[in-house]
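[agent] plan:
  1. take the single chain provided in the ticket
  2. run structure prediction with default settings
  3. attach structure tokens to the ticket
  4. add a short note for the reviewer (M.T.)
[agent] executing step 1
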Amino acid sequence: MKLPSKYIVLLVVLSLAGIFAYQAYWLTGLYRTMRTDLERNIIEAIRISDYNEMLIRIERLQERNREHGEMSVSTGFDSEGKQFVRSSTVLHQVSDTVIEGFTAQNDTLRRVETDTVRPQAMLHANEGFDMMLHNQSTMTGMAIYLQRGLHSGLDIMTSPEFSVYDSLVSARLRELNIPIRYRLQYLYSGYDVNDRWLYTDTLATGGTPGYTPGTDAVSYQYAFSSSGHDVYRLTTEPLSGLVLRQMAGILATSLVILIILGFSFWYLIRTILRQKTLEEMKSDFTNNITHELKTPIAVAYAATDALLNFQQADNPAKRERYLRICQEQLQRLGGLVEQILSMSMERRKTFRLKLEEVRLSDLLPALAEQHKLKADKPTDIRLDITPADLTAYADRTHLSNILSNLLDNAVKYSAGKADIVVSCHFVEHDGQKYTEISVLDHGIGIARDRLPHVFDKFYRVPTGNLHEVKGYGLGLFYVKTMVEKHNGTVEVRSEPGRGSEFIIKLRMKDEE
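[agent] step 2 finished; step 3 output follows
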């Protein structure tokens, strides 16, 4: 059982829509993932830069320790799982001692150790330290709290160096391949002495020189103090453009794939529809050609039956009439068979034309007489061959069939009397000489929108109810195919109600 073509087309369209939808869903998910990763990297760059800035301050403090004393800061969790921050200082003290007129300087060491501090904003674990290692987010949070704990002790001794922090952020963003323009701020927020209103002070500003955030700019901030009052804020433009630029290769590849799939499915649907149309045309052709073949057979059979069984042969006039009918029908049948065989031969690789010089003055008069005899209407065929010995370099049999088809159409599509003019002469175009044969009629003509299709296989120009013209859509297709086999061209000019003109151009032998 064959699946109707409309359901095949529907399945193809649904499949293509599903592929497009899945591709769009996948690209949207990838965009969101890349955007989230980019935002996470920016926040992480802010935090890591803060940690590196503290390391730089600690290194500087160590340099001072060697000259003035020692300072240390430690943070961690005690046996109860509570976090602490502890700092201690060892100072070099110099005292003067006077001995018999000389003054001596004695160095002594004094250690000052602060009590353990547990900031209120630090992490507290009620169920012990092991609970904090259950997942990555908890470990990251623990690292943040430890970093803030270091700030609590370190910031007592030395303030953050914003210019160093700014350069570290810029370097970190370059390492992560995040080419953004940004503004960096060091903010402090708190309440007034009476705790009545919240204020925010901008202690320092840096970032990309000359950059001013737009109205749709977004901000990412990191509170680095235990109390949450000290904040680093990075403001930049929305990251959509940067994410799309990073996805440019994937988007281009996906677009190419979608275009290829779309073209493939379109071509598949087009092929299916053309195959369906061709199948319908073949079915119509089979029905039509069956009728066309049966008609001359039935007429010839009836004529011979009348001669044999109804003593019509004794009457010379009737005998001649019936025999002429048989001859005409057999000629018609032979023409049909010849065209069908010619079309089947045209597709064979072994098909070869027998080219020769054909005198048109010898070929055309006989064809004109044949079509006058078999026409069922008054027919006048005028020949204009200039010069009289004009020849065409062609296969005689196929050239005869080509002209016969054109003359047959001219007769069939003429309203009333068929007035046909066949003109033959040579023309020169682009330095090459051609034999041009024109068949002009004054029949019903062809509409302009039908002209591009008249040479298509199985195509027949609709004639409405004006004429019941028999045919099966192979004649003009045969004409075009054979003319092209001769390396020639065929064209048609027509106006409805004024007739049609078919023009054939065949290259002359000396131009081969």
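[agent] step 4 note for reviewer: Residues 274 and 280 are 10 Å apart (CA to CA).
[agent] ticket updated
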